[in-house]
Amino acid sequence: MSLDEIRPSLPLSDVSSRSSSSCGTAVPDSAAPDAASALSPPSRPPLPHAPRQPAETVVTTGPLPGSRRTWLLGADTDGELRVPMREVVLSTGDSVVLYDTSGPYTDPTVNIDVRRGLAPLRAPWIDARGDTETSVGGGVGVGGRAEGENGAGVRTDGDNGAPLETVNGQVGAIGGRQVRRGARALDRGALTQLGYARRGEITREMEFVGVREGLPAETVRAEIAAGRAVLPANVNHPESEPMAIGRAFLVKINANLGNSAVTSSIAEEVEKMVWATRWGADTVMDLSTGADIHRTREWILRNSPVPVGTVPIYEALEQVGGRPEELTWAAYRDAVIRQCEQGVDYMTVHAGVLARYVPLTARRRTGIVSRGGAILAAWCRAHQQENFLYTHFEELCEILAAYDVTFSLGDGLRPGSVSDANDEAQLAELATLGELTQVAWRHDVQVMVEGPGHVPLHLVEENVRLQRELCHDAPFYTLGPLTTDIAPGYDHITSAIGAAVIGWHGTAMLCYVTPKEHLGLPDRDDVKAGVIAYKIAAHAADLAKGHPGARAWDDALSDARFAFRWADQFHLALDPETARAFHDETLPAPAAKSAHFCSMCGPHFCSMRLSQQVRSDSGEPAPTGPGLVQAAPRS
Amino acid sequence: MSLDEIRPSLPLSDVSSRSSSSCGTAVPDSAAPDAASALSPPSRPPLPHAPRQPAETVVTTGPLPGSRRTWLLGADTDGELRVPMREVVLSTGDSVVLYDTSGPYTDPTVNIDVRRGLAPLRAPWIDARGDTETSVGGGVGVGGRAEGENGAGVRTDGDNGAPLETVNGQVGAIGGRQVRRGARALDRGALTQLGYARRGEITREMEFVGVREGLPAETVRAEIAAGRAVLPANVNHPESEPMAIGRAFLVKINANLGNSAVTSSIAEEVEKMVWATRWGADTVMDLSTGADIHRTREWILRNSPVPVGTVPIYEALEQVGGRPEELTWAAYRDAVIRQCEQGVDYMTVHAGVLARYVPLTARRRTGIVSRGGAILAAWCRAHQQENFLYTHFEELCEILAAYDVTFSLGDGLRPGSVSDANDEAQLAELATLGELTQVAWRHDVQVMVEGPGHVPLHLVEENVRLQRELCHDAPFYTLGPLTTDIAPGYDHITSAIGAAVIGWHGTAMLCYVTPKEHLGLPDRDDVKAGVIAYKIAAHAADLAKGHPGARAWDDALSDARFAFRWADQFHLALDPETARAFHDETLPAPAAKSAHFCSMCGPHFCSMRLSQQVRSDSGEPAPTGPGLVQAAPRS
């Protein structure tokens, strides 16, 4: 299959043109670090205590209370590689440096304009590799390439200044923008991170991840080369800050966004993305199913500092009027290509829902609960044919390889209740996903594998063991799992329990569940509740796995707690605003911030105060603050 | 030691007299079941959908939406033993019968008056055993017995009609009430449930628990006799509905209540108790430390349908002006006796904090974080003597035996951070608690053992294993454990993760943690958040342990979900009000309650709708509702 063959064959009605969106300045000179050491924090303005929300944007910006954006420098890049981190500055003068997913939004020196999108951090790296051809056009014709293409290896970063359009002051249609496409340069081998890793080359993205995770870049390369990790980084999403998903790294979390036909607007979804990454989402998935799928995704992609995942069959289904039986490989392929060219970093593909597995779900308590799985089961039934994603899987690999889009092999037959956990349908599909993993790897396409769902605690570890065996150690990406079905309204908790345990046993990324699961579309508050619950689960898993440096964060907070450094406790908290608000609910006076008790026990019954007295009576040293603690130590 | 010797030696300034409080009528004739079968629900009024809150009470009453209080009958008691359960009546006409901790407050036929307290359900059973002597007096002298005692075996249930006093319309001093005391009848052997169990006798309380748990009463007796379970039931708390804590039973949860010197009132604490049991608390602990300790506890006890636990050293410390070094065994003993006579069902006793263990905490990150542990460590340091609770432990056993108060051997040296988990101090104390367990058992006193605290996931199972080994299989009662320290404001979640896992591995009761942990005193909303998180953890543990019948609840909810019976989903939820509110936030119209989708996915993308179509296309039977599902099946 040639690249021409993978151009869309359907009109792209709402994508007339597209321009580069590199207008923001993520790293102005004034914010450059003033020391060669990655551990020396750059001089920065005073810490504000509330996020600012400029009138011209619709998203939340500004640092978290007590934190500032700082940079670690790549050791081998003469200071050129600068990896953003969250630095919590303590009252002792020490700092705690934490992994940061929030992107430039928490940097007060960056001018955020969602109509223009983020700066293309990775564009120079992609250009330097010289293995992409780039297409720029004012419009996309039917079944053909866009006009005005540039040659291979040329990346058009010149910005024509045309912002993403707004309609009536709201985020709306994308118009007047040039289309730019990246594709594989045929003579250089696979442009995927897997391709480079297998060829022994460490990309800038891998170096970035190494610094970010506190691991040698060579470890990053080796994990990717072995298929044990992925680094989702579509060449058309240069705005993203590289991250890796794999057992050797910190456990990651994903936040699902996206409107449905019933509710929500594009503007709300962009803010949800910024909001989710502010609280710690490592990736987001745009699961929109209503109108404006393409435009919603464009706004999210151009503004997202984290990899974006999608489920392309949703768009394909919209294209055929919502009727599963009318789906075709061509319609699906075109949706995939549109999304590849837009910059989607990973795609859920339900290629393991084989026709012969569908009857295995008939006696289940809750049938098929994956939307993609149900759509494909309906298609297989209607046509009495094998799932077209399975039969066309090699073609799909060729497409994804051309943009370095990562497969997220979907678990279309995951259980929808604890009653259906680890059943024949689920495990049959898992075996097929293992087979497809090897097919994708032959094409140098990165792969992760999705997992359940609803699983009682005693069956959680078995899920990881089987996935590792059947899927050859490809990274596992699980939804929850929910450990009980009795608590709608609290499924962020029912599933955080399962998520922590499955993460401990080796799951690489946890897809969050919000309190609205099973009940409705999450709003901004639900997104935050889900992200926080999953950051807790992921960190609990990191501690249990013994990730080097993970405990430094806990230790710094415990030290602050024992020393009654209340402000430091708040600032080190996963959610500083809530921690402070809860404390201040009963003891709002400034003096209480240095009190050696809180309202929970009162002054006479504070165990920590008594314990400190015991310690000082016995001549033991007083507790000290940490030195510079780096939760993700530098390589 | 004679009984005279265990009378208080300090003035009880705020307990001048006390009367029986048996004025409520929990089971009026009109509410009696009309069929001999335990599974036939009695005829009941229509289900209300909002809790009523009569003007004359300060507590929440009325059933949960879609639920009603029903009764299971004891098989061997000619229908005399009636065990209250929560019956969820589905739209299919079927019912799901669930364990219910809410007491008479959810029964609309019971006239609730917190000034008079609940009916003494167990009084006739205690009387019938004839092994208590009862003291009734108008006041308590210093160091002597109260006036007006009755003879052994006589229980004064006559109510003089004097309500608990209110001050300015608020819950206030207890006055004008007679003191009534239960004590061991010396010629009948231990009156404790452990004593009866060891003698091979099945008490009414054990029968009640058997029906409630769906297990044979003989199993209940055998578990108690072996020390593997406790049935906390002070003879002076006849208002409580019997329940058991042990590995063979459903995992239980405790909610901590109680004011501190800084905030909260008695009225608030009584409502928190009712509120906590409404959402599922199996026991409550009154941890009040401010003024009015005794009065607060009296109000809670007289109104509590669940066992009440305390930490007597808090009251003892208040008696000596808040100075740990001035504590004496006599002051402590008197506080214990006052609480025994008031009806406290279990007491946390930090007898394992030995003087030689205190130095082991000196190098810890967070020292001693148990209030009791810190107080006793301070006392040991000040006096350079062994912990008086350890040296007087046998006397304590004699006192607790006389009222059937259960030991909750406190973990005064539990870790306060993941950094300190499973350290030498913690494990040294645990070994001592094992030694004390056997001492208590020699006195026929029931025992459970408290545990951590803060523990990373990979060390959780080891805690249970060590506790079982060192403490001879006595029930384990753990606080959380919190699995990370980085999320103040969300410690109900950090700890629900640990609680689910430790419950799965055999912990019998989980002490809840609220979102306010480490930050302030929980309010009513925090209590609910903590209880719900812990009900989730306990149920997830029950599922993982394979408790017979536990999954019936999940299955009934999953069936309702798959059949789009929205109202049934809400009614079966742990929190029906929140589930409905979340759904109605985006789809409030009544028609949406029968829609085959929700706002999360919209109509075209509802996997369950598609899955049902696949199923009907293939001629598979439609999903059916459950029959009468009993989550705790009858023996």
Q: Can you walk through the features of this model?
A:
2 copies of one chain form a homodimer. With 635 residues, the first copy, chain A, is α/β, with parallel strands linked by helices. Chain A has helices at residues 123-129, 193-198, 204-213, 217-225, 266-279, 293-303, 312-319, 329-342, 371-383, 388-391, 393-403, 424-442, 460-470, 491-504, 524-545, 550-562, 566-572, 576-586, 607-617; strands at residues 67-73, 82-89, 95-98, 132-137, 166-167, 170-171, 179-184, 229-230, 245-246, 252-257, 283-286, 308-310, 346-349, 406-409, 447-451, 476-479, 509-511, 629-630. Chain A has an 8-stranded parallel beta barrel, surrounded by 6 helices. In chain A, strands 1-2-3-18 form a 4-stranded mixed β-sheet. In chain A, strand 1 and strand 2 form a beta hairpin. In chain A, helix 5 packs parallel to helix 15, helix 8 (329-342) packs parallel to helix 11 and helix 17 packs antiparallel against helix 18 (576-586). Chain A is globular. Chains A, B: Belongs to the ThiC family. Chains A, B: Keywords: 4Fe-4S, Iron, Iron-sulfur, Lyase, Metal-binding, S-adenosyl-L-methionine, Thiamine biosynthesis, Zinc. Chains A, B: Residues 136-145 have a biased composition (Gly residues). Chains A, B: Residues 8-41 have a biased composition (Low complexity).
Tell how many strands the DSSP assignment of chain A holds: 18
Tell me the strand order in the biggest sheet of chain A: 10-11-12-13-14-15-16-17
Structural class of chain A: alpha/beta
Multimer state: homodimer
- What is the alpha-carbon Rg of chain A in Å? 24 Å
